[in-house]
Amino acid sequence: MWHRETLSLKARSRGFHLITDEIVSGLAPMQEITTGLLHLQLLHTSASLTLNENADPDVRHDMEAFLRDRIPGDLPYFRHTMEGPDDMPAHIKASLLGTQLTLAVERGRLATGTWQGIWLGEHREQGGSRRVLATLQGE
Questions:
Q1: Which CATH number does the domain 2-138 belong to among 3.30.465.10, 2.60.120.460, 1.10.287.1490, 3.40.190.10?
Q2: One Pfam family from the UniProt entry (predicted)?
């Protein structure tokens, strides 16, 4: 079976957000898959997807603090500044973390580790709603 759909995520504040439940609840056909893959592609260049800690929100806070410290918005050599001081740093973070994930599906559920969850990294102050192209493949 193949299934593809675009999921819309609500606008979020700058930082990292656990979106596993939002993704899974938007993909009812996943329940039909015994063995397969879910590919997620974020359709934006200033946000990211990553798989990380799903229990302690301090991990998401610390990741944002670390990246803000390492990639500040006011570096004098940035040329791409017309969309605001947070735009170029957002592109860098999206490239470093990535905008795609491929996850195993087993017996209708994501086959993730005990403490793993899907994060949306919102790297803009006003990023707006985000779209994720989800492709399910399996039997």
A1: 2.60.120.460
A2: YjbQ
User: Which candidate, 86, 106, 116, places its Cα nearest to that of 13?
Assistant: 86
Asked if 23 and 126 touch (Cβ cutoff 8 Å), the reply is: no
pTM (2 d.p.): 0.96
Q: Which of 68, 31, 33, 63 is nearest to 50 (CA)?
A: 63
